Amino acid sequence: MFTGIVREVGTVAAVEGGAEGVRLVIDAPSTASGAAVGDSIAINGCCLTVVAVEDGRFAFDAVPETLARSSLEALRAGTRVNLEPALRAGEPLGGHYVQGHVDGVGRVRSTGAEGVGKRVWFDAPQELMRYVVEKGSIAVDGVSLTVTEVDERGFSVSLIPETLERTTLGTVEPGTAVNLEVDMLAKYAVKT
To answer: Read out DSSP for the chain?
Structure first.
């Protein structure tokens, strides 16, 4: 379980493997220093298990299912990624409940200045839009956000300077692929 509050932006050091699965090695001194083999870490919102830790880096294995359902297959050495260790009992819940189970991949439609922040529109898979509501929660690349507007193709969010500075969302451009996780409470409400 996660909160969608990014703790560190790491850098992909290596991607080894291919369509059968990859090993991701990520430079992240702060997060890696507190990680152990077997821990869950959300990488751009995708929950993966630490398989090795050494010298400020950790490694993760991503199987074909993970690669097919997320934007992780596009990662290359040098790519910056949002990182969040799993929520521990007693820690504050600062964002919203995030499972690290990517529901689909969206794309940045547009970005624009909005006061001191930025408004970003995302196109989302139609099967996810039934769970996206104005003022509801959504995780974009692992970042807990509030939906500001919804249209037939997707949704927008308003990003504050803190989010722009402390996550990878400050550098997204039209066409950028992002991992989306809709609010799990919305999924259960619709299912019921």
So the answer is: -B-S---EEEEEEEEEEETTEEEEEEE-HHHHHT--TT-EEEETTEEEEEEEEETTEEEEEE-HHHHHHSSGGG--TT-EEEEEEPPPTT----S--B-S---EEEEEEEEEEETTEEEEEEE--HHHHTT--TT-EEEETTEEEEEEEE-SSEEEEEE-HHHHHHSGGGG--TT-EEEEEE-HHHHHHHH-
CA 155 vs. chain centroid, Å, equals 16
- Residue ranges of the chain whose pLDDT lies below 50: none
Would you state the structure tokens that stand for residue 179, as one six-digit string?
A: 């991992």
Reported as a single tens digit per residue, the pLDDT across 134-154 is: 999 999 999 999 999 999 999
Return the biggest CA–CA distance within the chain. 47
Question: Could you tell me the pTM of the whole model?
Answer: 0.94
Q: Measured at the alpha carbon of residue 184, what is the angle toward residues 23 and 190, in degrees to the nearest 5?
A: 135
